[in-house]
């Protein structure tokens, strides 16, 4: 650590040249190339990313499924690293601190943060559909090394770069004992699933749960539901391997959506004495699946949670009477956890061995092979592939 701090000291006010994976247009491989990373402005922090992974949300934006389609851009929002330098207004972070870039921003001073009713912050709202830094809303800290072309930021994190610059609202300081090659996963997927069971649905002991889509988000919902004491956890996917894998996470029943003779909601109703499940979760973003997940929740007070990101060009229609008996159809981001004040506690739980991240890490790769990692997630062949940014 001492060595790292000493070596970082020499770069504090410099423009850093490093490797990043730049997305120039939708649906094309990322371009691994040299970029310049400007020093942080007063409210910002420059971070050396050591490890990171890819979440399906990166691919959603990479494929241009969002309304804004901002390119060129450096994606990535599941990573961890070490502070390299801080802006002049930053008091609580210093060079060498271990951090997780938190796309779930928490400025602690905007009306949304002060209202305290949710984990949504106005900095997140800005970052969601813009590629500039939230401090001035008109500049970026990234540029192409060969010609100076500005490159947009993503979600306030842009972890597909060896160095990134984040607003202070998007930096969670974590336990110095944390293993960055594991806790990088706490940047998005695992807290989203676990927190959705605990904080959004509030799964209760003895309840029945249906989880649609068994990637990292779905499996961490399963993990959260199991810890909360659910007695029936039905896993639904179109991939038999994912269903088999889900048994290790605590599924009590599995259903493959391919080739079913009747609608999945009818089957789930039969499995639950004609009631429907107490809690259902969509972890796919597929419109038909989102609808089925809503349908299969108990009409009398069941809770259906949408976690997947649906293509911005699509819509779902439903009759409001579906909710007349008190069913709730809800959603949320990052499992309802706050980025800066709650993420460090989750890291502590990993250091103490309470949360085990190992079983989500199905692959490891050098950062230089990021396009292979994208392919693995696209083909459904991995949960999380942790990349080493020094290679
Ligand atoms: N709400 C949030 O805060 C938040 C955070 C992270 C990710 N997400 C979203 O959650 C979703 C899942 O992310 P992930 O990283 O776990 O993805 P993933 O690709 O690893 O997993 C998706 C799973 O769903 C299954 N699936 C997809 N379409 C299906 C269908 N039509 N029928 C049955 N099974 C189907 C796949 O086989 C796969 O196992 C994505 O939409 C992502 O954008 C939301
Ligand atoms: Zn805020
Ligand atoms: Zn994510």
TrEMBL record:
InterPro entries hit by this protein: ADH-like_C, ADH-like_N, ADH_Zn_CS, GroES-like_sf, NAD(P)-bd_dom_sf
Domain of life (superkingdom): Eukaryota
GO cellular component: cytosol
Positions of the Alcohol dehydrogenase-like N-terminal domain: 42-174
GO biological process, one term: formaldehyde catabolic process
Keyword Oxidoreductase recorded: yes
GO molecular function: alcohol dehydrogenase (NAD+) activity; S-(hydroxymethyl)glutathione dehydrogenase [NAD(P)+] activity; zinc ion binding
One Pfam family cited in the UniProt record for this chain: ADH_N
Family: Belongs to the zinc-containing alcohol dehydrogenase family. Class-III subfamily.
Listed PANTHER family: ALCOHOL DEHYDROGENASE, ALCOHOL DEHYDROGENASE-LIKE 4
Name of the molecule in the record: Enoyl reductase (ER) domain-containing protein
Organism: Physcomitrium patens
């Amino acid at each position: 650590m001492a060595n790292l701090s000493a070596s970082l000291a020499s770069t504090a006010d410099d423009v850093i040249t490093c490797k990043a994976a730049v997305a120039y247009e939708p649906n094309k491989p990322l371009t691994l190339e040299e970029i310049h990373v400007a020093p942080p402005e007063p409210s910002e922090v420059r971070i050396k990313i050591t490890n990171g992974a890819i979440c399906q949300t990166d691919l959603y934006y990479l494929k241009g499924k969002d309304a804004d389609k901002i390119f060129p851009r450096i994606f990535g929002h599941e990573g961890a690293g070490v502070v390299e330098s801080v802006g002049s207004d930053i008091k609580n972070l210093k060079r060498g601190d271990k951090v997780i870039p938190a796309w779930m921003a928490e400025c602690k001073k905007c009306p949304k943060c002060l209202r305290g009713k949710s984990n949504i912050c106005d900095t997140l709202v800005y970052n969601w559909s813009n590629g500039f830094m939230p401090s001035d809303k008109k500049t970026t800290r990234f540029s192409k090394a060969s010609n100076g072309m500005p490159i947009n930021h993503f979600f306030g994190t842009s972890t597909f770069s060896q160095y990134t610059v984040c607003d202070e609202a998007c930096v969670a300081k974590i336990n110095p004992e944390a293993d960055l090659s594991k806790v990088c996963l706490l940047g998005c997927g695992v807290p989203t699933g676990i927190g959705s069971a605990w904080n959004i649905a509030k799964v209760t002991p003895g309840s029945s749960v249906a989880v649609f889509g068994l990637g990292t988000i779905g499996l961490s919902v399963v993990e959260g539901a199991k810890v909360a004491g659910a007695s029936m956890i039905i896993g639904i996917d179109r991939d038999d391997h994912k269903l088999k894998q889900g048994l290790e996470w605590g599924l009590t029943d599995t259903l493959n959506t391919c080739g079913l003779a009747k609608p999945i909601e009818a089957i789930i109703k039969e499995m639950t004495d004609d009631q429907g499940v107490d809690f259902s979760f969509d972890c796919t973003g597929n419109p038909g699946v989102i609808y089925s997940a809503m349908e299969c929740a108990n009409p009398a007070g069941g809770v259906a949670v949408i976690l997947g990101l649906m293509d911005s060009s699509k819509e779902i229609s439903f009759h409001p009477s579906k909710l007349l008996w008190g069913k709730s159809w809800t959603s949320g981001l990052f499992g309802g956890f706050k980025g800066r004040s709650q993420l460090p506690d989750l890291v502590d739980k990993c250091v103490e061995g309470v949360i085990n991240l190992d079983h989500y890490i199905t692959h490891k790769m050098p950062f230089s092979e990021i396009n292979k990692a994208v392919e693995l997630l696209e083909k459904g062949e991995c949960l999380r592939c942790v990349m080493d940014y020094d290679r």
